[in-house]
Write a structure and sequence with these properties.
Blueprint (H helix, E strand, L loop, with lengths): L1 E5 L5 H7 L11 E3 L3 E5 L4 E6 L5 H17 L23 E8 L4 H9 L9 E2 L1 H5 L1 H21 L1 H11 L13 E6 L17 E8 L2 E3 L2 E3 L4 E3 L6 E4 L6 E2 L2 E3 L5 E8 L2 H7 L4 H27 L1
Parallel strand pairs: 1-3, 2-11
Antiparallel strand pairs: 3-4, 4-12, 5-6, 5-7, 7-15, 8-12, 8-15, 9-14, 10-11, 10-13
Helix pairs in contact: 2-5, 3-8, 5-6
Length: 305
């Protein structure tokens, strides 16, 4: 097991300038491809990486359940992580990225449905479409997510304890985990960014599922000049409140796929639903489904007229 201490190669001011651009190979001086713990020179944990610890069958089940949904339901709503400079989501690049589990914002089109129907916006805690529309597929992704949670507890017990205490206070979460939400990305090079909306006392994670051969895609902390070659079966825990992004993905095989999976707890979900009962959850989800269906129907009727 290696323990590495690294220094910043870019100042905070320089990183503010590099933010929302893409990581370049010239920014990265060292890429890790073995078990390692990396700290800043001040002693703060930056990342903890473990190779070949996740089960192949769990990765396969996750991929089979989510790949089609992620690639067929593309989105423009990933903001600055796409490298876009526009605040208008409709001007952002289209990416293959999906959110599973629960989320704390209505999608832009859903807000439009409510507005056009003259309806008050419901409490912004919702079940994502994948989880609501494909419950059997959602069950198939749980073993991988629960295994990530197991390694979270094992490798970062102090961070896990704080996040899990919050997760226990809400029924809007992934069963038997400290997570409320999962993001999947397919062949998506994210720009240099810091995560927002996740639990500030927790610690980020990332796993990768692969089909075919590719090079690149390493997950990087450019301010420190380091990257990690996360491959299928590996698990990376990292401080996602540091500047991070991944290098360009270069297919070797024509149909090569790099699916990244990120699990986290949305702070606003916890704040809005902590200590609410299971019956509150069921009633809220049923009411929001009805409200969205009514608003959507109203919007379609107006278009016809």
């Amino acid at each position: 097991m290696k323990t590495i201490y690294v220094e910043k190669i870019f100042t905070d001011q320089q990183m503010d300038t590099l933010g929302n651009s893409f990581v370049q190979s010239k920014h990265i001086h060292q890429i890790f491809d073995e078990d390692v713990d990396v700290f800043s020179k001040e002693g703060d944990l930056l990342l903890r990486f473990r190779k070949n610890v996740l089960k192949q069958k769990d990765s396969d089940a996750f991929f089979d359940a989510t790949y089609k949904f992620t690639t067929q339901n593309t989105t423009k709503n990933r903001g600055s992580t796409t490298g876009s400079k526009s605040k208008n989501v409709y001007e952002n690049p289209i990416v293959q990225s999906s959110i599973l589990g629960y989320f704390d914002r209505w999608a832009p089109n859903q807000k439009q449905y409510f507005k056009k129907a003259g309806m008050k916006l419901p409490l912004e805690v919702r079940e994502t479409r994948f989880s609501a529309d494909f419950p059997e597929k959602f069950k198939k992704i749980l073993p991988l997510i629960q295994d990530i949670n197991k390694y979270y507890k094992k490798l970062l017990p102090n961070y896990f304890k704080k996040q899990n205490a919050k997760a226990k206070q809400t029924h809007f979460k992934i069963p038997h985990t400290s997570f409320t939400t999962i993001t999947t990305n397919v062949n998506f090079q994210t720009s240099i960014h810091k995560d927002k909306g996740d639990d500030g006392e927790g610690f980020g994670n990332l796993v990768v599922i692969e089909r075919g051969r590719y090079s690149g895609g390493e997950t990087c902390l450019p301010q420190f000049g380091i990257g990690v070659n996360v491959r299928e079966g590996d698990v990376l825990f990292m401080d996602v409140h540091q500047w991070h992004g991944n290098l360009k993905i270069k297919p070797i095989d024509k149909d090569a796929v790099r699916m990244s999976v990120v699990c986290y707890l949305r702070t606003k979900i916890w704040e809005r639903t902590k200590n609410k009962s299971e019956s509150f959850k069921k009633k809220h989800l049923a009411n929001t489904r009805k409200a969205l269906k009514r608003a959507n129907k109203h919007s379609k009727t107006r278009k016809k007229n």
